Amino acid sequence: MFQRLRQKWGVSGLDLALILITFAIGGSLCGYLAKVLLKGTPLEGGVLWVIMYILLVTALWPVCVVFISIFTGQYTFFKKYVGKMASRIFGGNK
Fold first, then answer.
1. 10 Å Cβ neighbour count for 77?
2. pLDDT tens digits for the chain (94 residues)?
3. CA gap 65, 57 in Å, rounded
4. Residues in CB range of 12: below 8 A, 6 or more apart
5. How far is Cα 45 from Cα 13, in angstroms, rounded to an integer?
6. How far is the C-alpha of 92 from the C-alpha of 94, rounded, in Å?
7. Is the sign of the CA dihedral 35, 38, 40, 46 positive or negative?
8. Domain ranges of the chain
């Protein structure tokens, strides 16, 4: 599985490890930030809280992984990765 990812992304073993670490830390950070932001609202759980949490995580994730990628040295990879995702979502050039 990791070999296929290395080939697909065209990265070395060390870069793959740093990319996976960036995904893990960035995902955890955006989940944490979403919870912190929701603590400041009158929502106390329930369906509306879950919907808002999912929306916040979705919005924060790209920002968090690009921010963390600066420290792991993978900024170029994540800039391209997030850009490709955005063009697929928002119907960029095909």
1. 20
2. 889 999 999 999 999 999 999 999 999 999 999 999 998 788 777 889 999 999 999 999 999 999 999 999 999 999 999 989 888 888 766 5
3. 12
4. 6
5. 42
6. 6
7. negative
8. 2-84
Q: Can you read off the two tokens belonging to residue 76? A: 């170029």
- Burial class from Cβ neighbours inside 10 Å (0-12, 13-18, 19+) for residue 22 reads buried
Structure tokens at 14: 């060390």
How much is the pTM?
Answer: 0.83
CB 35 within 8 A of CB 57: no
Contact in structure between 53 and 35 (CB atoms under 8 Å): yes
- Can you read off the two tokens belonging to residue 16? 């793959």
